[in-house]
Specification:
Largest sheet of chain A: 4 strands, antiparallel
Shape of chain B: globular
Structural class of chain A: mainly beta
Shape of chain A: globular
Strand content of chain A: over 45%
Strand order of the largest sheet of chain A: 1-30-29-28
Number of helices of chain A: 1
Strand content of chain B: 15-25%
Structural class of chain B: alpha/beta
Number of helices of chain B: 11
CATH architecture of chain B: 3-Layer(aba) Sandwich
CATH topology of chain B: Alkaline Phosphatase, subunit A
Number of strands of chain A: 30
Helix content of chain A: under 10%
Distance between the termini of chain A: 17 Å
Largest interface: A-B, 52 and 49 residues
Radius of gyration of chain A: 19 Å
Largest sheet of chain B: 9 strands, mixed
Oligomer: heterodimer
CATH class of chain B: Alpha Beta
Number of domains of chain B: 1
Chain lengths: 353, 426
């Protein structure tokens, strides 16, 4: 499927007429799910990608900010910006609500992660709380208060009772289950900027690469107003939280790493979004000085997800999404923006090089 | 439709024209209010203004006119307010509790989607184009009402960055009606007289300066020559009030209430300037042009407005100043309903909101509405010209009869096709 050089090819592209915050593929590979800006979850069949979703799930509010699947089953965990957390069993293009917490947080749940064994769901919110939930029934297991700061990202350690959170100010906090106070904290320089009465930046995502390595992504903000930031990924030692390695994925026009996920063969896939028309899809390995694959035809990319066979899908934004004043069609209808979903063939760094 | 001062504080076109003619004959363009009637207006009128300017454009959807759960509504919830049935963004919890003291217009519809031309249009009230440059709201008000008995500068602009005397705000009124800008909320540099200069020596220096001024003024237009000495006089007056800027004298709890951020501390300074007798204070907050990362930006920015304006409203109420101080919170436009790829909102003059409170304004009013998805006005739309009429009326100025003089050219003080909005007036 990939080209002769081993680089992925852009295959099918379809368009979601509602903008998506995040996309994820189910373990079975049957469902590509996206959370929308208008409280829905839309699901497509990635094997037969067409614009019309095979399933639409309602019940959320605001933006469906984050989605994650159970590691082995087609159980989808979703959260929204009004504080709701839910679990759904997807089967035969139907969604069964397993449980929900209408007010899991007071307002915007920024991030959600599932432990490697699928037993625990962790959430972090604008309310400054980090919460652990029983993935089976949605019962609250632990409520940690992250110093009152807005929590942007969370992750569960794969081999211990520990978990981690990160906030708007670039502060990482290491927690242990059952402990009220965080065990340690570290501020990542450059990932927060205070300018013109505005805090900006923050660690946007946390993923454990293994038991000794935490990967965190986001950007190094340079100014308010427009999205001027250098997208960056840091590999940190665990539990010391010392930065071992960093990779900057572009110039300050490229903005933030909006989404990061594992790619086969110990590689990583990331997307960025910055200034209008900027943003890329990238594949790379730890240690690379430069991503071995960059796709620049999509703009303002917000999410990426990888299928088991190495195919991957990126969610971007339609071109010319920016503009002052009203944009209307011939009938005078106000026009919103959309999310193109681009399917790529698998790639191989070895053959690409 | 009376302003807070009632009809006795309103001044007719005839009175103003009378004073204008005499003022002009007495020597000076833009000297409309130097006659007896104008003096009467100024002496009788103790009204003051605080304009909080959110430069770049605050999103109406993340503040005064939320559309939660709609296509373009964004991530935030709305919350109930002290006005039954009225909701605002969850980012404004303190102002929500004070909505019964505010008047909000949700159906602003203006023309210009650009900062460079839109800011001056809004701050000038966008009058009919007559080929002249109108004064900004602050300069116009300072001119119409003059300094208060405190003799402090009538128009002070508290802003981040650099300060100075900004004569361009005055338009055809002439440079002396410009803004004294306090950059970073700091007094002009070298305001304090060095200790080595005695009173006697200072008086000698003052006389020498006046002689130089007289020599400089000979053969020059009064507008130009007056401006220099005017600014000097303002600085002299400020020197006598330099303690206004010494925030260390304030209790920490007072500073905390406004917020230890730029907007908070500048709003606190504005209150102190108004209490000391400045006629018009503009506080500017920069950085609202959120083409990118709009929602994270508003998450940190709007609560600072919420905190500062709420503290201000409480203080004005506690001090009995709401009757004479008009507070306006606005920008040059709002932000687009549609959300762009940078997760931002762009410029949107088509349907936006502003808020006001205090002197002459009817509290607890929410005027106008937008469509359910926020994409257009769904009631009578208001231009900034109508708001200028409303604010002048609230200040006791008959906006439909009073006129500026640009040389011998009489000019309406607000758009002559528009009029005050009665629903907003106390």
């Amino acid at each position: 499927m990939s080209d002769e050089a081993g680089k992925p090819e852009a295959l099918t592209q379809v368009e979601s007429d509602r903008q998506l915050c995040l996309i994820r593929v189910s373990p079975s590979g049957q469902y590509l799910c996206g959370g929308t800006y208008d409280a829905q979850i839309r699901c497509w069949n990635p094997a037969e990608l067409v614009a019309e979703p095979v399933l639409r799930i309602s019940g959320h509010h605001g933006w469906v900010q984050w989605l994650e699947f159970h590691p082995q089953e087609d159980i989808l965990y979703s959260c929204d910006t009004w504080g709701m957390l839910a679990a759904w069993q997807l089967r035969e293009n139907q969604a069964e609500l397993l449980w929900q917490q209408e007010q899991a947080h007071d307002g915007w749940i920024r991030s959600l992660a599932v432990s490697n064994d699928g037993s625990v769901v962790i959430t972090g919110g604008r309310d400054g709380h980090v919460r652990l939930w029983n993935a089976a029934d949605g019962q609250l297991l632990q409520d940690a208060i992250a110093d009152g700061q807005e929590v942007y990202a969370v992750a569960v350690h794969p081999g211990s009772q520990e978990f981690v959170s990160a906030d708007l100010f670039g502060v990482l906090r290491r927690w242990e289950r059952g402990q009220e106070q965080c065990v340690s904290e570290v501020r990542l320089e450059g990932m927060h900027l205070f300018e013109r009465d505005q805090d900006l930046g923050g660690v946007r995502q946390l993923i454990f690469a293994d038991e000794q390595t935490l990967v965190c992504s986001g950007g190094e903000p340079k100014q308010t107003g427009n999205t001027i930031a250098v997208p960056v990924i840091h590999w940190l030692s665990w539990p010391a939280l010392e930065t071992a390695e960093s990779l900057r994925l572009g110039d300050e026009q490229q903005g933030y790493v909006f989404d990061l996920c594992r790619y086969p063969d110990d590689q990583w896939a990331a997307v960025t979004s910055g200034q209008p028309g900027k943003g890329q899809v990238m594949l790379f390995r730890r240690g690379d000085e430069e991503p071995w694959f960059r796709h620049t035809a999509l703009t303002n990319c917000h999410s990426i997800t990888v299928l088991a066979d190495g195919h991957f899908v990126a969610a971007a934004t339609n071109r010319n999404s920016q503009g002052n004043g009203a944009v209307r069609d011939k009938e005078g209808n106000y026009l919103g923006n959309t999310t193109p979903l681009q399917l790529f063939s698998p790639g191989s760094a070895a053959t690409a090089e | 439709m009376n302003g807070c001062g009632g009809s006795e504080h309103q001044f007719s076109r005839r009175q103003i024209l009378g004073s204008m003619a005499a003022g002009t004959a007495a020597g000076g363009f833009g000297s409309l209010l130097q006659h007896a009637a104008a003096d009467e207006l100024q002496q009788a009128n103790d009204k003051q203004v605080l304009l909080i300017w959110l430069d770049g454009g605050m999103s109406q959807l993340e503040s005064w006119d939320p559309k939660p759960g709609t296509h373009y509504g964004g991530p935030y919830r709305s919350i109930p307010t002290s006005l039954p049935g009225i909701h605002v963004s969850e980012l404004m919890p303190q102002l929500a509790q004070r909505m019964d003291r505010l008047a909000v217009v949700r159906s602003m519809k203006t023309e210009d989607p650009n900062h460079s031309s839109g800011v001056p249009k809004i701050l000038r009230g966008h009058p009919r184009d007559r080929g002249v440059v109108y004064p900004y709201f602050g300069a116009a008000t300072a001119h119409l009402l003059g300094p208060t008995p405190s003799r402090l500068p009538p128009y002070v602009w508290v802003k981040p960055g650099n300060g100075g005397f900004i004569s361009s705000h005055a338009g055809f009124l002439g440079p002396k009606y410009g803004a004294l800008a306090l950059g970073g909320g700091k007094p002009p540099q070298n305001l304090q007289r060095p200790a080595a200069i005695s009173d006697e020596l200072d008086e000698l220096r003052h006389r020498l300066r006046e002689r130089f001024n007289q020599r400089y003024a000979a053969g020059r237009r009064p507008q130009v020559s007056e401006a220099g000495s005017h600014v000097y006089d303002l600085a002299q007056t400020l020197m006598k009030n330099v303690d206004l800027f010494d925030v260390d004298t304030l209790p920490a709890v007072e500073r905390d209430r406004y917020g230890r951020h730029e907007l908070g501390q500048h709003t606190l300074l504005a209150r102190r300037l108004l209490e000391a007798g400045v006629r018009f204070v503009q506080v500017t907050s920069y950085g609202w042009d959120t083409h990118g990362d709009n929602f994270n930006a508003h998450a940190t920015r709007v609560p600072r407005v919420d905190q500062a304006v709420s503290a201000l409203l409480d203080d004005l109420q506690d001090r009995g100043l709401m009757e004479r101080i008009l507070v306006v919170v606005m920008a040059e436009f709002g932000r687009t309903p549609r959300i762009n790829g940078s997760v931002g909102r762009d410029h949107w003059p088509n349907a936006w909101s502003l808020a006001m409170a205090g002197c002459g304004i009817r509290p607890g009013v929410v005027l106008g509405e937008t469509l359910a998805d926020g994409t257009d006005v769904n009631s009578e739309a208001w231009d900034i010209g109508a708001l200028f009429h409303t604010w002048y009326t609230a200040l006791g100025i008959n906006s439909q009869e009073a006129e500026f003089m640009n040389g011998t050219q009489p000019l309406p003080i607000a758009h002559d096709d528009m009029q005050p909005i009665p629903e907003l007036l106390a």
